[in-house]
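I am writing to request your help with a piece of structural work I have in hand. Thank you for your consideration; the sequence and its C-alpha cells are set out here:
=====
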Amino acid sequence: MMHKDWLEKPYYTLDAYCKNRFGYKCYKVALNAHMTCPNRDGTVDHRGCIFCSAGGSGDFALDINVTNSDEQIIETAIDKQLQKGVEALAQKFTLSQEPCIIAYFQAYTNTYAPLPYLKEIYTQALSHPKVCGISIATRPDCLPELVLDLLSQLQSAFPEKFIWIELGLQTIHEDTARYIRRGYPLSTFEEACRNLKQRNIPFIVHIILGLPGEDASRLLQTIQYLNELEPFGVKLQLLHILKDTDLAIAFEKGEVHALTKEAYLDMLIMCLAHLNPGIVIHRVTGDGPKKLLLSPLWSGNKRDVLNTLHKKMRESGIHQGSLWSNSPDTNR
C-alpha cells in the first residue's frame, strides 16, 4: 500500500517531501559556481570520470559571471543566476509567495574551492529571499573538517533554511569504481557520511543504473547498502553516454551498451521495491543534454519514461519498500 503522504505516487518523491514539509511545491535552480574537480585538475586524475561531460555534470546549470577586461572570471554571480532562474520559473509556474527555490550547486565539485569563496557563494544563495535551502553536489573526498565547520556555521546562521549535500557514489563495487575512474575508495565515502551525520547535515546519494558490468544482482547489493546507511535521499540515475567522453569512445567501439527503456525500468522498479520507504527519491531518470546525448535516445522523453514507470508499478502492485527488509544482507 502506498503511503498517504506520497501524493499518489508509488514512491516517496522530493515533490511530496517538499509539499509535506513546506505546504507547497519547491523548484530547483541549477547553478554553476565555476569550480573544478580533483579528478580533473591532477590531484586525483586529469581525465575525470569516464561518463562526465566537459560541463562537469552541470550542463543544465545557469551561468552568469563578472569578468575583467581580459575576460577572466573575477566573480561568480550566484545571486544573479538565482534571479534569472526564478524569473524563468515564474513564467512557467505559479510560485509560492514563500521561499520555494532550492539552490542547487550542480556543476563540478562544489566544496572544492577556498573557504572564503565557499562561504561567499553559499551565503549569497541562502540570503536570497526566494530560496528555502541549498543542495551542494560534491565528492566525499572533498569534505574536509573546515568545510564541514562552515556548513555547520551556516546551519546556525540560517536556521529557517536547509543545507543538503549530494554525494556521487554511483556503486559500492570497487572494480566498477575503478573502471569509471571514480577516484576514491568506499571507505572515503563512508567516512564522509559519518561526518555529515555527526553534524546533522542531510545527504543525498547518487547511484547510476546501467554501469558496465553492473547486473541486477550487483545493483541490488548497492541498494541494500543504502538501506543500512539510511541517507536522507537517493538519486537513481540512468547511465547516459555523452559525446566527447571516454565512455563515448567505449560505446563507439561496441565495448559498452546503453540500457533499453524496458531494461532500465525493470532495474529501476527493482531498486525502488527494495529501498527503505523513508528515503526520499530525488530522481528516477534523467534527460541528458540533446546536443551531447549519444545514447539512450529514448531517455530524452522524460515524461514518457515517468508515465510508463508509474503505470508499470501500479499494474504490478509494486511501491517503494515492497520488498524492503529492516536488516538486509548486502553479501558484499
